[in-house]
């Protein structure tokens, strides 16, 4: 291979790398600047599939990656936050949203690429103390790099028009559409970005042939490659679903089926599609308008495919269920259920998933409190062993959740408000784990009570029963406040904490009176007072969680509107 050929390949790859970096950098900036603006995305995910399509399209238009949206949806399905029909409609929308990148590329603003880079650089590095301006600067800087990469690829591709071998290959693509589909699919499989490979295709098609007017590949030759690009982008979702739930695998397969069926339909009508795209696109010399034609063809492909499948979601569900049989079994496990590592860079959604895991942790501590009450009041030592096993699970899940929150914190897509929420959630994770510790301490006191054959009076048992019930109500209300982000619900918990403090004080006084009247043995004092104190400590933890909700962890209300019903 000649030095010129090597230099051309390296320059092409460098331009492609610059394009992908610019696109990802711009995407990160958009998420920082507009992350809170996406707060209603999940709230519109109702049983209406049209809203699901809109949510998918808008989310992808913001984060500039259908693969990222699809991977995120797979995480939601795994977490039980989204049902399969909902997920399919969102994926359809994601395919529409990803066409925005191709539309942007079709605008001939490459001459201003370095101006965008300079302006973005100034905003990003000289005004970094102003968070919003810095975030917008990142978007502008990435936008400029994106077009700088396109310019580099465009210059590299011009000599290809003089290559006899390359021209022959392009003619074969026009004559054998399946070859074009395979080329597009393989390109996207390697690059892992349909936006990048479509950008390459747009630049290639905008390269003039020997006559200086006609595209080297033409619109009819570009369409099969475009269809293949859409198939290739599904591999990211397939990879993300490996090891996930059955429902998540079905979601990934639905993405594959959607794009393959669209290709199988469109490939038979390439001349007709090309004619329609020509009519709806700007007119002029082919090399000047073909980038826009490809962008419009991309949009037409995905919109038409969505229109075909939208009323047939029920059929898609049946198809993917047949391809991926089985069912998901729900069981208590120390493995996280909601912590999807693929969603880390979509901080708004990753924070929601982390909170779902914390709510799951609280469900385990609720179960521990029930068992602690049963162990203490009924001397049920089998329940104690069960409680200890749950406590081990809580500890492991708490570690995993804190690590996940720290991972979100370390990404470069979070803003100051989200950073504050993450800090609050870390404190909540500690308080939830401490609730489990207090339940374990009560279980150990139950063992001590059983070992020494302590028989509490009916009055003492009734008092402890009352104390347990207060803690149980408080824990239920705390979980509800965290789930809803409702400040009023959190204020109720604060009042309950005051009551449980008063209850502990009153019960201590009652016990002292029984000791004075010789109606209770002094030997029982330590077990009795320690038990009610451990219950009061559970109230303190609930109080801390409620305070965090009041301060800044009400993202469920702030980011998403009403919570998605699971």
Could you outline the blueprint of secondary structure elements for this entry?
Layout: H1 3-34, H2 49-63, H3 66-79, H4 84-97, H5 99-106, H6 113-125, H7 131-157, H8 164-175, H9 177-191, H10 194-205, H11 218-232, H12 235-241, H13 246-266, H14 270-280, H15 286-309, H16 313-323, H17 347-378, H18 381-410, H19 416-451, H20 458-484, H21 487-516, H22 525-551, H23 555-560
- Assembly state: single chain
Mean pLDDT: 82
**Helix/strand order:** HHHHHHHHHHHHHHHHHHHHHHH
How many beta strands in the DSSP annotation? 0
What does the overall shape look like? elongated
Distance between the termini: 59 Å
Number of helix segments?
A: 23
Low-confidence stretches: 554-566
**Overall helicity:** over 70%
Strand portion = under 5%
Radius of gyration, in angstroms, nearest whole number: 30 Å
Total discrete domains: 2
Derived from helix and strand composition plus strand pairing, the structural class reads mainly alpha
**Sheet having the most strands:** none
Describe the structure.
The protein is mostly helical and 566 residues long. The chain folds into 2 domains: 3-323, no CATH class; 341-560, Phosphate transport system protein phou homolog 2, domain 2 (Methane Monooxygenase Hydroxylase, Chain G, domain 1), CATH 1.20.58.220. 78% of the residues lie in helices and 0% in strands. It has 23 helices and no strands. It has helices at residues 3-34, 49-63, 66-79, 84-97, 99-106, 113-125, 131-157, 164-175, 177-191, 194-205, 218-232, 235-241, 246-266, 270-280, 286-309, 313-323, 347-378, 381-410, 416-451, 458-484, 487-516, 525-551, 555-560.
